[in-house]
Write a structure and sequence with these properties.
The complex is a heterodimer. Chain A is α/β, with parallel strands linked by helices. Chain A is built from eleven helices and 13 strands. Classes of the chains: A alpha/beta, B mainly alpha. Chain A: This is ABC-2 type transport system ATP-binding protein.
């Protein structure tokens, strides 16, 4: 068996050039899926636009992975459709060239990362040189010849991402790609996804259960809870709607007086013993202004949760599969 | 489809499973050939070196390598589920039946050199050892037919392995089940006269039909199919398992 590529079935790919890559819109319409008595996804509809990073947010067990697997034709929905410019994934003529996906970070432990990629080059009729190109793109060039069984979780995430990039696809669908990445890796991923969407015009759908992760990456968010759509929109829209609904932490040597002053001014105040006061439903600016007017000395003033986080908690409250009792943790 | 078959070969040759199985097949074939030749002509042992019965019997031991081809096929299919590579595989090829067909073709073709190696080791051991004991067998006529059948059986068992893997998906379960069936269940079935009639239609009976060298009195001859019938029956088992596996098992949601 030779290693020379069968030219008949392959065509070249020019990474980075967007000429050949038409923007593709992903449309999810009325998807539902039950596993036995458990309704994992209920009548879920949303749209993912090209040229932007769309965050698919929801607590664990909200049905994110099930939705993505249905979008990619790995599970059959009970009802509904998911299409890429009108075509369902299994009907795409060359799916790998249109859509790249990261769902699993599992690999054959004895096969090297590079050989793993070469397998899918062959299966998709891509030149095997793409394996080395995508390895370099995700920063794994030096580890490519090592057995994937010895990779760290972060390296597995990068290899999975490299697999998704093989066909230079117009759409990327990534399930929790930041899991297991170190802070440097998360920073890199954030920049990489934004580059793929903003500079190269790709459609990027990325799921996460952490809002903080998405706040700095996503342009739009689709929030789900218990298998249903909770909110869909741009992060800016969401942020302005959530303005002033966060929690503010204040530390003062005159905590008692501060609590009185704020309470008299109509703030929702919860004092604690060690000189701290928590004020909810407002911004640090408003609290600071009030304290200044009353002449109360402040040693610390900061937003404990942003309005957006507060909104996310509220939207998805009680919808975790194994929700902790109210107030036990946050 | 060519691309998918090549992808399967890349999967096969980028891990080392095949080396161990090939070595096992060669050691098993060569070992049995040596044992049989060493015992040939002894009281209660195989027929003496130089007799046609001995030669057919000794050359047919190559067929013992079928078990390694079977395991090769099982691993080829079930590794996708065991190591969860089924997800990228089915993302690349959403029509899952095409993946199964590619594996059947890829493993049948990969089993050809595998079978040649097992047959070559058998021939080498028999020719050298029996030659040293007086009479090296010729490799023509019925002897050649025995070798060809043994080789074909090895190829067909690789196909059966892929089919079985598609049906069961669980690697350890499929291998253990296949071994228990081949070495425990079938010998029992063939031992009882009540079930012996069924045995000839089972994979073991079909394999025996392909490679049998029995030339004793007609009255005690085992009831078996013709050689070609046995081969076709075995191939049928493999393809039916693959078809049923594709319809019932492979198309199920990948967890």
């Amino acid at each position: 068996m030779g290693t020379s590529p069968g030219r008949r079935e392959e065509s070249a790919i020019h990474p980075g050039s967007s000429r050949h890559r038409d923007p593709v819109r992903v449309e999810v319409r009325s998807l539902s899926k039950s596993f036995g008595a458990v309704r994992a996804v209920s009548d879920l509809s949303f749209t993912v636009e090209p040229g932007a990073v769309t965050g698919f947010l929801g607590p664990n067990g909200a049905g994110k992975t099930t939705t993505l697997r249905m979008v990619l034709g790995l599970e059959r929905p009970d009802t509904g459709t998911a299409t890429f410019d009108g075509v369902a994934y299994p009907d795409l003529p060359s799916p790998v060239r249109r859509v790249g996906a990261v769902l699993e970070t599992a690999f054959h432990p004895a096969r090297s990362g590079r050989n793993h990629l070469r397998v899918y080059c062959r299966a998709a009729g891509l030149p095997v040189t793409r394996a080395d190109e995508v390895l370099a793109q995700v920063g794994l060039a030096d580890a490519g010849r090592r057995r994937a069984g010895g990779y760290s979780l972060g390296m597995r995430q990068r290899l999975a991402l490299a697999t998704a990039l093989l066909g230079d696809p117009a759409v990327l669908v990534l399930d929790e790609p930041a899991n297991g990445l170190d802070p440097e890796g998360i920073h890199w991923l954030r920049g990489f996804l934004r580059h793929l969407a903003h500079d190269e015009g790709r459609t990027v759908l990325v799921s996460s259960h952490l809002l903080a992760e998405m706040e700095q990456t996503a342009d739009r968010v689709v929030i789900v809870g218990a298998g249903r759509l909770v909110r869909e929109g741009s992060l800016a829209e969401l942020r302005s709607g959530a303005q002033g609904s966060g929690a503010v932490l204040v530390r003062s040597p005159e905590a008692g007086r501060l609590a009185e002053v704020l309470g008299a001014a109509g703030f929702a105040v919860a004092p604690s013993e060690d000189g701290r006061v928590t004020v909810t439903g407002t911004t640090p600016d408003a609290v600071g202004a009030q304290a200044f007017r009353a002449g109360v000395e402040l040693h610390e003033l900061r937003a404990e949760t942003s309005g957006l986080e507060e909104l996310y908690f509220r939207l998805t409250a009680g919808q975790e599969q194994y929700a902790a009792p109210q107030g036990a943790t946050r | 489809m060519t691309a998918l078959v090549r992808a399967e070969w890349t999967k096969l040759f980028t891990t080392r499973v095949w080396i161990g199985l090939l070595a096992g097949a060669c050691v098993m074939a060569g070992g049995f050939a040596a044992l049989l030749t060493g015992l040939a002509g002894q009281e209660g042992g195989p027929p003496p070196v130089g007799s046609p019965d001995y030669e057919a019997l000794a050359l047919a031991v190559a067929a013992n390598a079928v078990v390694f081809a079977l395991i090769l096929g099982i691993i080829g299919m079930t590794q996708e589920f065991r190591h969860r590579t089924a997800t990228p595989t089915f993302l690349t090829t959403p029509r899952r039946g095409r993946v199964v067909v590619a594996k059947l073709v890829a493993y049948a073709l990969a089993a050809v050199p595998f079978a040649l190696a097992a047959v070559a080791v058998t021939v080498a051991v028999v020719v050298v050892y029996a030659g040293a004991r007086g009479a090296a067998p010729s490799l023509t006529g019925e002897n050649a037919e025995v070798l060809l059948s043994a080789g074909l059986a090895i190829v067909v068992y690789a196909v059966i392995g892929v089919g079985l893997g598609a049906l069961l998906r669980n690697q350890v379960g499929a291998i253990v089940g296949a071994l228990v069936y081949l070495y425990v269940v079938e010998p029992l079935l063939s031992a009882f006269s009540a079930t012996a009639a069924v045995y000839k239609w089972l994979p073991g009976g079909a394999l025996e039909a392909m490679t049998t060298t029995f030339r004793g009195p007609q009255a005690i001859a085992p009831d078996l199919l013709e050689r070609w019938q046995g081969g076709l029956l075995l191939l049928g088992y493999g393809l039916v398992a693959a078809l049923v596996g594709t319809l019932l098992s492979v198309r199920r949601d990948v967890v």
